[in-house]
Design brief:
The structure is a single chain. This protein starts with a strand and ends with a helix. It is α/β, with parallel strands linked by helices. It folds into two domains: 178 residues, HUPs (Rossmann fold); 124 residues, Rossmann fold. Helix content is 30%, strand content 23%. The strands form three sheets. Strands 5-9-4-1-2-3-10 form a seven-stranded parallel sheet, with helices on both faces.
């Protein structure tokens, strides 16, 4: 069978393979034996996790160009592997970097691209992609008619299923073009300093909307995210008002998230915003409008003014952090 190329996602520290990769490997196994592309060092823990979810082969590339030019360098490596192995498909997570890599790769290979896929199966004419439309009201099936199909996958819609194998690890040697090889050092980061996780893979996300009222008040979003060791984001409206950077916009055209905890502050909950965060494990919403659509998704809803509720919540978090931790052994004695 022809292999299936899977682009591996790491956390921002490049130490842990993301859940999104496990979801990609789960779908890839339906199409053929997965080959996982690791852009960075393939450590023992990462290899073990990739093997646990069915990666029969691991292709590893560790070059400084992958950090200096993330999209362009990944496209070069994927194109190199695609030409050598003639895969049945290429699977990439549907986040901002993944969408850019997929679009460039499709142009490079002269093939077709299907984005935001929720499911995959092998059909008589090749891989068939299943997409969700109008918030799940319709399911659309599509396939690429020729060449190597490239899919970006909404990994939040896929439940990772393990299928342990012993992977074969190979180092890939790629010659990058001059534009990608032009690498210059921008700075240094002391060893041991943790970088914040990316919004798309964060376990805790705090997002603010129009209800925050102003740029100054939007600072409460960042303060709460910092207190919870999470990542701050914003709605489309907050981005348009200049309160939130475009890269942190959470909606169908921005970043799709699937955290363990999602806090929505002053967000009414438009269709495009709910589509990007509705698969969070736990959703907490704070808004003064009891009829806001966000409450239809929330597991816990607080009807109130965010300018009063959030400071009280921050004070409670600080109070609990200040309390001494009592171990189970101390309780037993």
């Amino acid at each position: 069978m022809r292999p299936v190329l899977v682009l591996v996602d790491h956390t921002a520290t490049q130490r842990t393979v993301c859940r999104s990769t496990c979801a990609l490997l789960t779908l890839a196994r339906r199409l053929g034996p997965p080959t996982a592309l690791v852009c960075g060092r393939a450590d023992a823990a990462g290899v073990a996790l990739l093997g646990r979810f069915g990666a029969t082969r691991i292709a590893a590339v560790a070059r400084p160009e992958l950090d200096a030019h993330p999209a362009a360098a990944r496209v070069e490596v994927l194109a190199h592997l695609a030409r050598r192995t003639r895969p049945a498909a290429v699977l990439i997570a549907s986040h901002r970097l993944g969408q850019e890599v997929a679009a460039r790769l499709t142009a490079r290979l002269g093939t077709g691209l299907i984005t935001d896929v929720a499911d995959l199966r092998m059909g008589a004419g090749g891989p068939v992609a299943v997409k969700s439309a109008l918030e799940g009201a319709y399911r659309v099936e599509a396939r690429v008619s020729g060449g190597t199909p490239v899919f970006t996958v909404r990994t939040d819609a896929v439940i990772p299923v393990a299928a342990p194998v012993e992977p074969e690890v190979r180092r890939v040697d790629v010659t990058f073009p001059p534009a990608v090889r032009a690498v210059r050092r921008l700075g240094r980061r002391p060893a041991g300093v943790e970088l914040p996780p990316e919004l798309a893979t964060a376990a805790i996300v705090v997002a603010g909307g129009r209800g925050m009222g102003s740029q100054q008040s939007f600072g409460l979003v960042g303060a709460l995210a910092e207190a919870l060791r999470g990542i701050a984001g914003g709605s489309h409206t907050a981005t348009e008002l200049g309160w939130c950077p475009r890269r942190d916009q959470i909606d169908q055209l921005g970043t799709i998230v699937h955290p363990r905890l999602y806090l929505a502050l002053g967000i009414s909950g438009s269709v495009r915003h709910r589509a990007a965060m509705q698969h969070a494990e736990t959703i907490v919403a704070i808004d003064r409008d009891p009829g806001a659509p966000i409450f239809d998704l929330a597991h816990l809803g607080v009807v109130g003014d965010v300018h009063r509720v959030v400071p009280e919540l921050l004070a409670e978090i600080r109070r609990r952090k200040a309390q001494p931790v009592i171990s189970s052994r101390e309780v037993a004695t």
